[in-house]
Write a structure and sequence with these properties.
Distance between the termini: 43 Å
Number of strands: 0
Number of helices: 13
Structural class: mainly alpha
Strand content: under 5%
Order of helices and strands: HHHHHHHHHHHHH
Length: about 350
């Protein structure tokens, strides 16, 4: 599937302002009193290039779809399950690392421009790691290739529909950043995030288990897609000045702050409505209603996005939106597992 798209990589998933483009001079912070070793520092740098929080946005729809299938009584195929998780993780990590390399090249080029986006785009994650750029490029290709290799056997289970979805996801990942007219520089990039990190992954997961994507499974995918889109919109609201400086035409650039905040709100509302639709029918899917427990975190994030006036506040709002997404996914996943377990226990007691 696609990378977590640049809307998220530019500091959305970090704890420090602009951390994706500006590393602390003191290096990564480790627990304990001993100084970090060169090996541990290098390992952390490689992990950072993979954008671990990006994996959450890709794996959450996969895990929740698997939980839904199990809760509704479908037996899960172990090898396709592992294959889907490994393939998705590898492709996402490889695409993220490839995007970091390409942003590194663009950053070097932008320094020679008078209007280069300011300090926000002054440095790049790869540049601060000490990892040779070509090494990062080779590893990104290796991760992409490994993900494809692991995913190919799944076609035997999912058939041609899964092949088409996989090819589309890989194409989106490459086109998102690998051309001069990358999708992430256009409003269509938001649509790519919505489709790839939502219904696309949910449908692919169901197919990998030999199941046709049902309406509830697609609704769950749509819920994660619009929540991921809300995260992207929050990031664009934060980064609009820098995006404008480098001619990155996002929805926020075209619509403005007010419309962007409204779209953000609509995305969150739709996400919860879709989950409620999944939870309404009688049975194990009632457990999806536990998503309500993530509402406090979501409302907190919404307040930050709708009222933030300064850049620092907007940065915190983006981080809070990611936290809300995490809790949203956790409670749906937990609820479906608990619901499926209860249904099985009741059936066992009656039998």
């Amino acid at each position: 599937m696609g990378t977590v798209m640049d809307q998220v990589d530019e500091g959305v998933l970090s704890d420090d302002t602009h951390t994706e483009y500006l590393l602390s001079e003191s290096g990564p912070l480790l627990l304990g009193t001993s100084a970090p070793t060169q090996a541990s520092t290098t390992l952390l740098a490689w992990i950072r290039l993979c954008r671990p929080p990006t994996l959450l946005l890709g794996l959450a729809p996969v895990l929740v779809t698997l939980a839904y299938l199990w809760a509704t009584g479908a037996p899960l195929l172990a090898l396709p399950l592992l294959g889907m998780l490994i393939s998705t993780s590898s492709v996402l990590a490889g695409a993220s690392m490839l995007d970091e390399y390409l942003e590194f090249e663009r950053t070097i080029h932008r320094r020679h421009l008078e209007d280069n986006g300011g300090g926000y785009y002054a440095r790049n994650v790869l540049e601060g790691t000490g990892i040779p750029p070509m090494s990062a490029l080779r590893v990104s290709h290796g991760l992409l290739g490994f993900g494809i290799a692991v995913g190919l056997p799944l076609i035997k289970v999912g058939g041609s529909p899964l092949l088409v979805l996989g090819a589309l996801g890989l194409t989106i990942a490459i086109l998102y950043s690998a051309t001069n007219y990358a999708l992430k520089r256009l409003p269509i990039g938001e649509l790519a995030v919505f489709l790839a990190l939502g219904p696309g992954l949910s449908a692919a997961t169901a197919l990998s288990q030999g199941r046709r994507p049902t309406l509830p499974a697609v609704e769950l995918g749509l819920a994660f897609g619009v929540f991921a889109l809300a995260l992207v919109l929050a990031a664009h609201l934060r980064d609009q000045e820098a995006d404008r400086a480098i001619s990155r035409w996002t929805l926020i650039q075209l619509s403005g702050n007010r419309t962007g905040s409204i779209l953000y709100t609509i995305c969150l509302v739709i996400a919860y409505l879709l989950v409620i639709l999944v939870a309404l029918p009688k049975g194990a899917t009632h457990g999806a209603a536990l998503a309500i427990l993530s509402l406090p975190a979501t409302l907190f994030a919404w307040t930050g996005v709708s009222r933030a006036l300064v850049r620092r506040s907007r940065h915190l709002a983006v981080r809070h939106t990611l936290r809300a997404y995490t809790r949203f996914a956790f409670w749906i996943f937990t609820g479906l597992l608990v619901g499926g377990l209860i249904v099985r226990l009741v059936a066992l007691l009656k039998g």
